[in-house]
Amino acid sequence: MPDARPATEATVKAPHDPRPLVGEPLSLDLLNTVWNHDGVRRDLLTDTEGLALWLAANGLGTRFAADGPTLANVLRARDALASAVESPGAPAGVARVDEVLGHGRIRATLTSEGPGEEPEFEDPAWGAAWLAARDYLNLLATAPDRIRGCAHDTCVLHFFDTSRNGTRRWCSMAACGNRAKASRHYARSRES
User: Fold this and answer.
1) CB 25 within 8 A of CB 135
2) pTM
3) Distances in Å between the alpha carbon of 9 and those of 3, 24, 57, 124, 179?
4) pLDDT digits over 73-96, tens only?
5) Nearest-5° Cα angle at 83, 78 to 89
6) Which residues lie below 8 Å from residue 143, measured CB to CB, with a gap of 6+?
């Protein structure tokens, strides 16, 4: 199943999006709605305004309502995904993601362009949450070893490593990678 957002939106930061890392696949982008800033935990999804921003940033703003039921379901999916990503294969995380997936399905279609797939949801308020959980399945099928958390000890962001050799360690080389390099340099200079 292709990414739920158009390619042109996948790399464009949404207006006024305060998150330090955007443009990751939908499931990881949902996890990245929680981040640390100057030692303080931030959460984009504290209200429906934040949900509307996240939906729009992922090309879902016209498909799903930014309302209370959708927010509750997206938060449920985020918690399930966090559990699954932090402990891959653990029964609790698997069950929680599977519970979210139980609220939708893929219907095979035939279009004028050929075979296709159309997601269907028992309740539209589960749509965005279900698409995020389904995206996680796609990442697992593609390259589960490339689903990573940032290596910086205070960073909680996740990314899908698309580097050629699969050695990306940081959510952003300019932010966390640079801080780590600066810390190592400072430690070496103090030892001298």
Assistant:
1) yes
2) 0.84
3) 11, 11, 7, 22, 29
4) 999 999 999 999 999 999 999 999
5) 130
6) 160, 161, 166
Q: Where are the alpha helices (DSSP H) in the chain?
A: 7-10, 26-31, 48-57, 68-86, 91-101, 127-142, 178-191
Q: Are 24 and 33 in contact (CB under 8 A)?
A: no
Task: Give the DSSP per-residue string, 89-106.
Answer: T-HHHHHHHHHHHTTEEE
Task: Give percent of the chain above pLDDT 70.
Answer: 84
The residue assigned the tokens 């362009």 is 113
| Dmax (CA) of the chain | 69
Buried b / exposed e over 109-124, threshold 16 CB at 10 Å, is eeeeeeeeeeeebeee
DSSP state for residue 45 in the 8-state scheme: G
pLDDT at 156: 94
Q: Which two tokens stand for residue 189?
A: 């200079």
Residue 179 pLDDT grade (very low, low, confident, very high; cuts 50, 70, 90): low
